[in-house]
């Protein structure tokens, strides 16, 4: 399951406080088939991966039972077609595979090099054809992941040597950090890359653990355990006992996993607050016990969604949940079930171009469904607050490429103010409420990512001349 690492952010406007209001109708939260109400594959499938490019095109990779090879398909807004023109792009079976995209339109597909061979194959699609890149690993590898850094360099992970990461530089694979990332036999690996110069690996190794390293790490630079401890004790029985990681636009890490049998294998979501792994919402949630095939997605504004399938209950159907930050609980989203039968290999992603949530899963083949997200918080009509100081209302506008809604308040000076900082997750509940701090803008700069609290810093000053402010030679 691989995430789009860079989303095109929209500019806020020429001045702070000058908001672009979004007046649009809300949509029913109804899951609909993407390009087809049934399977988009000819036969059965497994190990599905979903990725969405910056134009809003969908890519799905999977082990294609009909040809006993790996296949990749693309949805261009109207119909599905095989990337490269044909099904089955691998040389042999490819039950384990991964999919990632860069912002230039290149597609990277990794797969287990099937018997009697061993290792990992990596292919690149340049818009016209697939090319086989040098093998990053020749030892037997099952679990794998891939991601592309903001500078366009692809990174791959393999369960070789208890977890190893490599990057492709000038046509050759270089090892990133020391081998033996997990220090144990890792399973169910996922990898994300932030805009902060770091790469993160999440896998199950005596519990769910997340490790980090610099994108420029040498082969001797050690991997660090994020938070210094495991994220949680996870259920690990079987190929579908997955965990998943997502990274927010502010580089916040989110992890979902199923608890152990002692806690009925229910869902848990945690985030890393910079120091500790913190529970998000209620622990051990879900409409049934024995949940598996988990995936998580986060919008640029920090809205969280997760999906899981029931194992022993509900016929194995999958359910999507959304986090309600007001009541601090997880709720079903778009109905109790997305599928109408047993669903495997879930992958959930957010489409920033069309403001939709997209889900792929296996149910007698590859299914892809999506749901349109509301642009406005229910009840928000963008009206001004009342005339009395302390009267509140709300406003909806575009920030970081996503529709957000904030509470507004009438101040004692008669002006209308936002009741919370841009980029914050909630109105402050105390002076030291870190969730209310929000983003840190430098005067005159656009919403270009610099305002994220954990964005990269430099001691070297650079010229700051924002587009649209020509002729200004000094700043305060």
Automatic annotation (TrEMBL):
It comes from the Bacteria. Residues 457-467 have a biased composition (Low complexity). Residues 1-28 form the signal peptide. Keywords: Signal. Residues 452-476 are annotated as: Disordered. This is Delta-60 repeat domain.
């Amino acid at each position: 399951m691989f995430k789009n690492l860079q989303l095109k952010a929209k500019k806020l406007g020429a001045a702070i406080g000058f908001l672009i209001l979004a007046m649009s109708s809300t949509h029913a939260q109804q899951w609909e088939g993407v390009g087809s109400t049934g399977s988009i594959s000819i036969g059965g499938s497994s190990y599905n991966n979903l990725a969405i490019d910056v134009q809003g095109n969908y890519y799905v990779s999977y082990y294609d039972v009909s040809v006993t090879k790996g296949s990749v398909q693309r949805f261009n807004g109207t119909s599905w077609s095989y990337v490269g023109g044909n099904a089955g792009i691998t040389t042999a079976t490819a039950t384990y595979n991964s999919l990632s995209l860069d912002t230039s339109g290149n597609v990277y597909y990794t797969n287990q090099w099937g018997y009697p061979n061993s290792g990992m194959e990596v292919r690149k699609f340049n818009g016209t054809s697939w090319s086989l890149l040098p093998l990053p690993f020749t030892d037997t590898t099952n679990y794998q992941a891939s991601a592309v850094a903001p500078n366009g360099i692809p990174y791959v992970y393999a369960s070789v040597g208890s977890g190893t990461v490599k990057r492709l530089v000038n046509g050759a694979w270089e090892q990133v950090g020391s081998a033996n990332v997990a220090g144990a036999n890792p399973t169910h690996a996922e990898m994300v890359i932030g805009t902060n110069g770091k790469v993160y690996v999440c896998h199950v190794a005596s519990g769910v653990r997340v490790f980090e390293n610099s994108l420029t790490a040498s082969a001797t630079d050690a991997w660090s355990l994020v938070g210094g401890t495991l994220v949680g004790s996870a259920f690990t029985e079987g190929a579908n006992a997955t965990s998943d990681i997502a990274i927010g636009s502010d580089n916040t890490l989110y992890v979902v996993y199923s608890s152990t049998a002692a806690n009925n294998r229910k869902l848990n979501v945690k985030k890393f607050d910079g120091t500790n792994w913190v529970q998000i919402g209620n622990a051990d949630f879900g409409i049934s016990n024995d949940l598996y095939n988990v995936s998580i997605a986060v919008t640029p504004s920090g809205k969280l969604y997760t999906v899981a399938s029931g194992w022993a209950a509900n016929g194995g159907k999958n359910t999507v949940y959304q986090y309600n930050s007001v009541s601090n609980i997880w709720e079903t989203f778009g109905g109790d079930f997305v599928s109408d039968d047993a669903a495997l290999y879930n992958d959930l992603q957010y489409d920033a171009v069309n403001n939709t949530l997209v889900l792929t899963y296996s149910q007698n083949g590859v299914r892809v469904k999506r749901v349109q997200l509301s642009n406005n918080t229910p009840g928000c009509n963008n009206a001004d607050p009342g005339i009395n100081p302390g009267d509140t209302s709300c406003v909806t506008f575009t920030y970081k490429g996503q529709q957000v809604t904030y509470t507004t308040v009438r101040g004692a000076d008669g002006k209308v103010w936002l009741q919370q900082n841009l980029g914050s997750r909630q109105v402050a509940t105390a002076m030291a409420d870190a969730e209310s701090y929000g983003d840190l803008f430098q005067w005159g700069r656009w919403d270009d990512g610099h305002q994220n609290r954990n964005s990269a810093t430099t001691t070297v000053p650079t010229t700051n001349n924002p587009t649209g402010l020509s002729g200004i030679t000094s700043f305060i």
